Amino acid sequence: NTLEKADKGQIKIDDVTKDFTVKDRQNTRDLILKTAMVFQGHALFDNMTVLQNVIEGLIRVKKMDREAATKIGLSTLDRVGLSDRANYYPVQLSGGQQQRAGIARAMAMQPELLLFDKPTSALDPELVGEVLSAMKELAQEGHTMIVVTHEM
């Protein structure tokens, strides 16, 4: 996802191979579009509703019109059990709900690979189950995920 700069090695996702010894902006962009990341601290924009957080990437990165993005956003929020929270702001959600909103944002981009950075470590113990349940559902649907976790 280029949050960290690599100076050697390769990553291949489907038909895109990124060789980090070669500067190639288009190839890097193609690779980024095949991945989405769910962060430990949710990384939601506080000044946007949950739905706005979910559709922002669809509009800005994928250049989708707002109506189509909203349809995908609402559907994705429904999949993670947050359709009733679409117009809430992150501060109005529990930690588990915020993390599920982060998962919905990542899923809305329809990535080939989901990257999870300690998705449950910032949560109260009683909220961990709802996030793990959402992740298990993604796995059962056949989504490819790389998960960095302390969860046992």
UniProtKB/TrEMBL annotation:
Name the major location: membrane
Q: Which Gene3D superfamilies match?
A: P-loop containing nucleotide triphosphate hydrolases
Q: Which SUPFAM superfamilies match?
A: P-loop containing nucleoside triphosphate hydrolases
GO-annotated molecular function: ATP binding; ATP hydrolysis activity
* Pfam families cross-referenced by the UniProt entry: ABC_tran
Sorted alphabetically, which keywords does the UniProt record give? ATP-binding, Nucleotide-binding, Transport
Q: Report the locations given in the UniProt record.
A: Cell membrane
Q: Where is the ABC transporter domain?
A: 3-121
**Which PROSITE patterns does the entry mention?**
ABC_TRANSPORTER_1 (PS00211)
State the superkingdom: Bacteria
Q: Name one GO cellular component term.
A: plasma membrane
InterPro entries linked: ABC_transporter-like_ATP-bd, ABC_transporter-like_CS, MetN_ABC_transporter-like, P-loop_NTPase
| Membrane-topology descriptor | Peripheral membrane protein
The UniProt entry, under PANTHER family, shows: AMINO ACID IMPORT ATP-BINDING PROTEIN (PTHR43166), L-CYSTINE IMPORT ATP-BINDING PROTEIN TCYN (PTHR43166:SF35)
The name of this protein is ABC transporter, ATP-binding protein
